[in-house]
Amino acid sequence: MVVVAYAMSARGPLMQCIELDDFKYFYHHRNAVDIKHVVKEAYRLMESTPKDIHPEKTLEDFKPLTVGQYPVFNKYPKFIVDYQVQERERIRHEEMEYMRQKHLSLEMQKETQKRQQEEEAWYRQQQLLLEAEDKRRKLIQDEEVKLVDQRKRLYAMNREVKLKELQLLDAARRKFLHFQKQQRESELKRLDDEVQRKALQRDQETETAMEEAEIRNLELQLQKKMFEQDLFREFATSSHHLRTEQDMHRKQSELEERIQEKLRDAERERQMEIRKTLQDGLAKSSQQNIEAWASNEYESRRRLQDLERETMSLQLAKRNAENRSLEKEVQDLMTKVQDRKDTETEVAHMELYEQKQDAAESGQRRLRLLEEEGYVAHEHGKSLTQDALYNLNNNSSRLGNTTLNSTKQSDMYQTLQTTTNSSGVSLERSGRAFDEKEIALLNEVRNLRQRLALENRSKRPPAVPCE
């Protein structure tokens, strides 16, 4: 009720407050009021306030003070307690600020004293520097005076030297003019001599030009003869080259014929060896069994005849194919030669190069055909030997099956197996010998071709006698 009475008594100042801070300041600070009026207003409010809103419900009854000591009273208004705490805190901060300012003032005083000492030392140093500078300036002035005196002496010496130089230059100029006069006189004499020499040189050049024209005519005639001689030499070399190529082609054809002859001889020898081995086997088997011998001989002869007919037909087919290829090559060569005669020299050389390539390819092809023919003959001989061995083994197995119970026939079967084994070994040996002969023939062919190529390279065209 007192707070309300206090606010009602201060109604005038509160009505003039506009901002919230003004209200807070009013209630947080002391204000001058009429205390009698405030107490009277508080009693009036106590009596006139209805009971349902009267604050006596929340407030306790008044109690008298205790005797001897004051009771514990902690129900002061919070804003008053906070205000006192804030005031104490403010005072403490002011004291700290005062101490800080005092410390700063002491520091500044020390700093000013230090600066004063430094300034005094700097002034003393500057005074010393000024004194030293004055001494140096005096020394420099003395040196400048000495330098001026020395320059005056140098100027006087330079003046004397220049006067001497002028005198020497005057003497040298006079001497040079005299020398120039003499040089011009000698130049005039030299020009007169040059005119005379040019006249003599003109006469000599005319004579030498006539002589050079005659020599040039002789050189042209000599070059003409040398050119004719070179043409004749080129013709001789080309003809010699053609002859060497013809000889090489002829030797190569002869070599191929010899190789074919050797291959035919080897084929005949192989066939004879095969026949001998077959006949030996058949003769040995005929001694054991006449019927088996007769049948085997008949079958072997019939097979041999078939094989001979096959080999003859294969050889004829190969020869016909070779003849056709050779005829075609000859026809192509004839057409190319006919075309070469009608074309120009450059085209003729190009076609000749192509013919050389074709000839080399045909030689390689013929060699491959010969090698293939030898390989086919070798395989054919192997097949014949295998067929013969197979027939002998079949015949021996039939004989063994028919005469299994008799010991005599078993002995004959063992002898037959030994004979077949020996015949097989002999056939294998003959086949290996034929292979070795064939390899030796091929190596000989390669060596002969290399030898012919080296001979053709080493040959030189015959020297043409100079006219």
Automatic annotation (TrEMBL):
Matches recorded under InterPro entries: TBC1_cilium_biogenesis
Coiled-coil spans in chain: 181-276, 304-373
Record-linked PANTHER family: TBC1 DOMAIN FAMILY MEMBER 31, WD REPEAT CONTAINING PROTEIN 3 WDR3
Annotated protein name in UniProt: TBC1 domain family member 31
Keyword Ligase recorded: no
Keywords of this entry: Coiled coil, Repeat, WD repeat
Keyword Transferase attributed: no
Cellular component aspect of the GO annotation: ciliary basal body
One GO BP annotation of this record: cilium assembly
